[in-house]
Structures are given as C-alpha cells and as structure tokens.
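Researcher: Going back to the complex we discussed earlier. I've cleaned up the inputs and rechecked each line, so this should be the final set. Can you rerun the prediction on the complete assembly and write out the structure?
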Amino acid sequence: MHLGDGDWIVVDSCVERKTARPIALEYLEKIGVDVASQVRLVIATHWHDDHIRGLSAVLAAAKNAKFVTSAAHSLQDLTRLAVLSGDFAPQSSATREYHNIIQVLLNRRQVGERRDSVGPIKANANKKLLTLSGRNRTVDSEVFALSPSDGVLNLAEAELRNALTAMKSGRRPVRLAPNQICVVLWLQVGSLNALLGADLEHVSGTTEGWQAIIKSDERPNGLAGFFKVPHHGSDNADCPESWTTLMPPGPVAIVTPYSPSRLPREVDIARLSFRTDQLFLTSDLAKYSLPRRVNPVEKTLRELSVKRRALMGQMGHVQLRCSAVGPDEPRVTLTNGATRCAVPLRYA
Amino acid sequence: MMPKSEAAAVVMIGSFNPAIFQPRWLGSQKLIRPEEANNATIRAIQAEVADFSTEWFQFQAVQDRVQMVSSDPRHYPALRDLAGSIFAVLQHTPVQAVGINRQFHYQMPSVEGWHSLGHLLAPKSYWEDLVDKPGMKSLVIVGRRKSDSAGTLNVQVQPSANIEHGVFVQVNVEFQRTDDEMTGAEWVPECLAEHWDNVMDYSETMLEHIVGIHES
Amino acid sequence: MLAFRDVIVSPYRPEADVLAPRPKYEQFLLRDHSVSSKMAPTINRLPRESLYEVPLSEDSGLVRLPSIAESKWKVLVLQRWVGRVERIEDDNFVAVLSDATNPTNAPEEVELDSVEVSPSDLPLLVVGAIFYWAIGYCDTPGGQRERVSTLRFARLPRLSQSRINKVFEKADRVAALLDGE
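Model: Rerun complete. Updated structure for the full complex:
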C-alpha cells in the first residue's frame, strides 16, 4: 500500500512460484520503488502459510522498515516454535518464515538498532502503528490496527502449544493461530481510507471479531472506500453491519481466493456481489490447472485413481490507483487472471 | 540426464559402540519397519564392527566411523531421516563430523566425449613433455558450495570402474561440529535436516555441469 | 574426506572379541576383498597410492569389511513428492503434495486410498504426518523393468526433552533480546 510521498507498507506476503520471490518485492521493484528506504512497515497479520510466505525476504530487503505482528502471540511461544523449526525444519513454511524473520530482527538489533525502530511491534485494537505528517508531505497518512481485541489475547496460546507438540513428535503443525487474533488494518491516506480485513471472522459476541471493531469507541472515524474482504470471502467472516458501519455504499472490494478450502464459493461471490458492484477477485479457482508430467507418471496416477486438485494458479494482481487529495475514481488494472465479478463464477 | 547408477550416503566420525547398531534395535526404536528389522541381512555385529543391510540401505559401523548408504533414490529422504533419528536417540554419542555424499556412474554418450572430458579436466599438454601417454586417473576439487557456504566441499571425478567409457562423480560435503556446548550428537539431526536437500540438488547440478563440459 | 568407502577396522584381537564365538569371526576374516581382485563393485576405488586410502600390509591383521555392494535393483525416479496428511477419512486420506522434482509446480491436494499405505506405516498415518511418494521404474536383477509407485511415511527424528529444553533456552534468550529495549 502506498501511503503517499513514496512511503509504502507491505502487508502479508506470497511468492511467485517460478521465481520463488515475494510478489510484493517483484511489484515494487518493477515500479521503481527503493524497497530498502521507502518501505516503512512490514506487517504479518497472522501466521498462516498463505499469508506469510516470503515475508522474511521482504523484511530483509526493507532495511528501514519496522516489523509488526499480532499482540496476541506470545513472543516467547512464537520464538520457541521458530527456533525449533529452524533447527529441525519439519517443512512448515509458516514456522520457517518466522524463524527467518527472527534472524533478520536479531541481526538488526545486534548492530545496535532499538526495538521501537526495528520491531517486533505488537499490534492490538486501536493502536496507531504509523503516522506520516508534516510540511514536507503532500498528504498525511496514518496506519491503525483494529484488532486483535483484548478478548482474544490469550487464544493464540493453546494453538501454539498444539503446534509445539506436533513439532516435537515430527509432525508438521496444521495451524498456528486462530483467525481471531489476526491484525485488521485501517489506513488513512489523505482523504482516502482503506480497510484490510485479514482473516478476521464474525462471531456473535462483542468482545471479539468484527463486532468488537464496530462497537469500539476508539477506532478511527471515517468510512473505507477500499476493502480487502476477510477470510477469502467466506461466510464465517461476513459481518453485514461492517458493510454499513465501516464503509460507504459500494466500496471497491477485493477477494483473494484460497484453494485448499475452495474459497470463495459461488454463494460467497453472489452474496458479496449484492454488497458492492465493484468486486474484484485476484484469481479464478476454476482456472487452476494441474501440471502435466511425463507419461509414465500420468499413467500411474490414472491407474491409482488419484483425485488431484491444484492449490495454486497464476498469481493475479488487482492494482488500484487513486488520488488522495481530491475526488477521483480509482483506476483499476487487472493482470494475470484477476477478474471483476460481474456474474458468479463456476468452479470445476 | 540419467546416470547408470547412483548412491547417497551419510558418514559420521566420532566415538561409537558398533554393537548397538543392530537391525532389531532400529526396529524397537521404530526407526525402520518391523519387517525391515526382521529381514535384514547381517554380516557382522561385534564389539568393533557392525555390518548389515536391508532392502534399501546398507549400514557399516566401526568404533570411529558410521556410514549408511542407499542406492535407491526413492529412499534418500528416508536415509536422511534414519541417520538423524538414530542420533536423536543416541544424543550423547560424540560425533565430530558428518559427511553427506552422493555419487553417480554416468555413461558418456561416446568414446570421444569420454576422452574429451578427461582432456578438459586434466589437459594432457602439460604432461606430454615428460610423460608418455598421460591420462587422468582421478581429480578432486575442494571448496565450498556457491549456493551455501556451510561445510567443506569435495568433488571427485574419475573414470568409472563400473562402466566402460563412463564417468564417476562423487560430491561430498563435510560438516564439523562447531558448538563446543554440544559434545554429543544433538547437532546431527539439525545438520542433516538443514543441508541434505541442498547437497542432493547440488550433486545433480554438479553431475550435469561435469558431463556437459565436453560439449562446451 | 568423509566419503563413504570400505571401512577399516582395527587389528583383530581374539581376546577382545567377547561378543561372538571365534569361529564365526574367523570365517568372516577369511573373506577376500583385496583391491587387485576383479572389478570392484561400486565404491569407485581410488588407486592405492592416493591420499585417501590407507595402505594395507599383508600381515597387519587389519580387516577390511565387505565393500558397500552395488544394489542389483536399479531404480529410476521420474517424479517425487513430499506429502503432508491434512485429513483422514474412512478408507482414504487427503494430503497436500509439494513437488520435490520441480518445486516451481503448485502444490496439489490429493486423495489417496489408505490401502496404498504399507501396513506397517499405518500407525504413522495421522493428521500432520509427512510422507514421501516416488513414481518411476525399477529394473530387477533379472532385467525386468517395472513401473513403481512407492509411498513411505517419514520416521522423523524425535526430540528428547533435554534437547527441547536446550532449544527453548536458546529461544527464550532470543525472545528476551527482541523484547528488550
């Protein structure tokens, strides 16, 4: 996300399969951004594989950036998991990434950097993470965390302990943290607001999830014209009140699919299409194709009647550009298979 | 680029009690399948030497050296796991060094190619003034991997003893124990987990590089 | 060089051989694996004069273990995956496969019949378990080529509590450093 005047933040990460490089780095380099000096924050909203692959490489390249993570994670538990993973490498990319992030932070601290200039900065509800203002700027910007709320700060512990137990016995941990501890972000860039929903789910209580954000008296004012739809468009993350309270009618909304859970489903796309006619999808699950392998391998797979499904396709890109200092319609550029949802998609 | 045959191995230098290394012990620790333990071919289990094999690996140990070899590429990851698992159990066994090895016997496509590879690696012109019919018998290059500087690299190239007009290539990377706090084998599983895949991939790249030299 | 090679044991001392009856060990000693014999199987032997082979004298009493024998089965692997079990159903299981032959390929979700798992690996079939799957050709000693699919569950190193404690001590030092000013 560009915060104006050449300052950027990077939120979560995924990698381009062919180059094995973080997509964010490839994009920023392509548009001429000096990652080392211009990226101000690198944020891990939560520790799920599909959100943090390549994040350590981003942090290593963003030499002036502070690292932000959820306050719900105990640094001690996360570090134990990371060191265990680093030493025994049970192939969990999430723990491996965190191990590498720890290394980057340690290296920076060892050359004398202080924690508040390096991180990890712990994000929780209504915490201001960054302020950019001053006479030298054309636009003032602020970045806030809207979650996790106080009510969930101890939820992560149980799942981290389960992950540690799995790793001790040579298994790969399936999950590292519940979605409720993720960091939802509110960005104010001049007159524009953006809401990045991470994977936060909607629950009935008011002390966690989207209700905790809506009911909070301390969250920033305003309405978000840009919305990153939480949890890949799933209905368990859909809070109808958030659309009417936090956003104007018909915001620009972006959904990032998650193939392992087959999200978003057709019914999710239909529901979201009723909320806004500016709905974009970074890729179409139906177009994920399996690689073609040599004939003996394909023949063996057919003979074994193995049901297979590709979990990743072409990495689509939705680029939104908009002026922050005056009324301006966002200019949307879709590449590599990203689509605008006019009609519900059909899945294979 | 398919070799005629290949093998991978782990070698450990330290202080061992060979009599411990019995298939039955590996089975009781669940490090191999019960059937593998029960059907192993034992050649010797003594105080000074252990030598046995299963369907997919061969094991030899003496008091200062343990080596485990497999020539079945399907089971290379299992070989790594087995070596790591053994020394996770025997964590107090002093191990000073670990070597990860991969070797290939490759059939050169022609006699001319076989000769030209030898000429390129060891140019005859330097020797012909003083040596009649010089030929390369073996070449060993030491250094470090460009992809990962950990460990000392040895690459050995020589005519294959198994295949006429074939080339034998062996890649060996040695890791020394560096942490004085770890006096046993605790570092062995971590070392193998961290470096095995890279050494295996690097070895394939090295084979392609070497046998491709004669074409450049 | 820690290459694998013939293992040389120390001189045989009958009085020290307490674990096995002498006749068996003497029989073992009588095996001839001298370098000058017919073409040696597969450890590619370096010339005796090289730096990497210990010279033997005839009366040294040193024993040379049998060479690592070349397997008579030749396996050509065409495709390898590393799998992680995601869920287990009645008679099948669902796993995510990472392509170990071509890591740039996307991961795949597969459903495999549990009957494909070796019976003695079944106790290892739990959520989160890692397995290795290879498809290729196997040439038997009799020259028969067979297409093979080999699935083996990983038996990964288990961590002792003392090792975990040491790892955690290291981690806690790191966490304290990161948390401090």
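Model: Worth noting: The domain at 8-248 of chain A is CATH 3.60.15 (Metallo-beta-lactamase; Chain A).
Researcher: Good, that matches what I expected from the previous run.
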